[in-house]
Structure formats: structure tokens, C-alpha cells
Write a structure and sequence with these properties.
With 136 residues, the protein is mainly α. The chain has one domain: Orthogonal Bundle (Cytochrome Bc1 Complex, Chain D, domain 2), CATH 1.10.760. It is 43% helix and 8% strand. The protein is built from 6 helices and 4 strands, in the order αααββββααα. The strands form 2 sheets. Strands 1-2 form a two-stranded antiparallel sheet. A hairpin with a 4-residue loop joins strand 3 and strand 4. Helix 2 crosses helix 6. The chain is globular and about 45 Å long. It starts with a helix and ends in a 6-residue tail after the last helix.
């Protein structure tokens, strides 16, 4: 009898764990595994400026060869990705191409993200669409 109850409990836990929405999955990916905030959140005097989460502006590379500033990936239509289609966002993440087709500067690690599943990419985009727009 105990084995049956334990099996039922474990089945319930597995169902609950798989019940996350695409936005919840996207939040998890953006805020943890993908590490988007490591580059796309500007730094304040005490570390990442969470009030401007993913608003860009962090100088990632500044040397004799190039200057790379992480862009705003909030849904602001002027300075962020608000006017981008979902497909354009996915292309930027997985192929390193900006909306107009220009290559994104290193260190955007698109080759790391190219292997993401279509479902995870859709979830990532869904979450980015829920962020408060920031003008960078």
C-alpha cells in the first residue's frame, strides 16, 4: 500500500514540475542558465542594476580592436526589442544577426544558444516580451 501511495505522490510531483508556462520557463532560462543579465544588465556601484534589468549599456569589450556594448533586450520599441518579431529575436540569439542582418559583435555567444530547442527559444522570447520596457 505504501508503494502505491509513494508512486501516486511522485506522479503528482512530476506533473506539477512539468506544468510551468512558457513565460515561467523563459524566465528560468533568461535569469539562470542562459545568463542574459550577465551582459545585458548594466552595472551600478553595488553590482547589477536590477531596476534596469536587461536594459543594456554594459561595456563588454573596450580595447584597441573593438568596443562592444550590450544592447537593450527589453520590449522598448525604440531602444530595445519591442519592434522586433519573434523570429528576429530568435535569429539574434541563435545566429548572431541583428534585426537588419548585421552580425552582432562578440562576445554574444550565439553558438552556445544555437542548440536550444524551439520550445525553449519560444519560452525565452515569451519571457522577454513580459519585461517592463526600459529606454536603456
Amino acid at each position: 500500500m505504501r508503494g502505491w501511495i509513494l508512486g501516486l505522490l511522485l506522479a503528482g510531483l512530476a506533473t506539477a514540475a512539468g506544468a510551468e508556462t512558457p513565460v515561467e520557463r523563459g524566465r528560468y532560462l533568461v535569469e539562470t542558465i542562459a545568463g542574459c543579465g550577465n551582459c545585458h544588465t548594466p552595472m551600478g556601484p553595488n553590482g547589477p542594476d536590477r531596476a534596469r534589468n536587461l536594459a543594456g549599456g554594459l561595456v563588454v569589450v573596450d580595447d584597441a580592436t573593438m568596443r562592444a556594448v550590450a544592447p537593450n533586450i527589453t520590449p522598448d520599441p525604440e531602444t530595445g526589442i519591442g519592434a522586433w518579431s519573434d523570429a528576429e529575436i530568435v535569429r539574434a540569439i541563435t545566429q548572431g544577426a541583428s534585426r537588419d542582418g548585421r552580425p552582432l559583435l562578440p562576445p554574444m555567444g550565439f553558438s552556445y544558444y544555437a542548440g536550444m530547442t524551439a520550445e525553449d527559444l519560444d519560452a525565452l522570447v515569451a519571457y522577454l516580451r513580459t519585461l517592463p520596457p526600459s529606454d536603456g
